[in-house]
Design brief:
The chain has 203 residues and is an alpha+beta fold. The chain is built from three helices and 17 strands.
Amino acid sequence: MNINKILASLFLLVFISGCTDLSDFVEKVPKTFVQEIEKTPEKIQDKFVMYIGDEVMVGEKLIIVKDIQTNGEVTLFVEGIEEVIETTKNPEIINELEITTEELGYGSEKSEYNVKLKIFPFKTRENEYYLKINEKLEFGDISIVFKDLNKIKGAKVLIEEKEFLIPLEETLIVRNIKITNKRAFNDAFRNKRSAVLHIETLN
């Protein structure tokens, strides 16, 4: 929610309405204006406080909060893709967006349930590759398969049928191929784990 814009709009309404008494002004504020304020997710930098049914655009992608459960699960609809994420504070990549569930809020009614999401576009740099479980890359006659992550975000990769473990921010060199584990997205469910590997061929 942009507080400065809201305050500016309120002062403009006061001026237009000619109200001198605040209570009189409140009665004259259009209900649609108040409802629009209530429906706008509060944004703090790249973080959004959202309720069930709230929508927000990040870049050109629409994110909708479909459901919030007391077990920490949040169902999101991200530009055509529905995904359930958990409040682990571990970022997840959903439809080219990096989304982290940072905090959940509850109330006596489900309409009061809310979630604080950190959302921004996911990007890789030159020679960086985003890989999910069992995805393969080919470098000449060498194949690299991302197999899994360990508990401390070490990446397990299969190179020519031999498994290697690359700790986070460390580098492995195999047959003139340099592989660095740049980022790791861990999850309780293996099929949702992923990593960003920087891979280049040495001269």
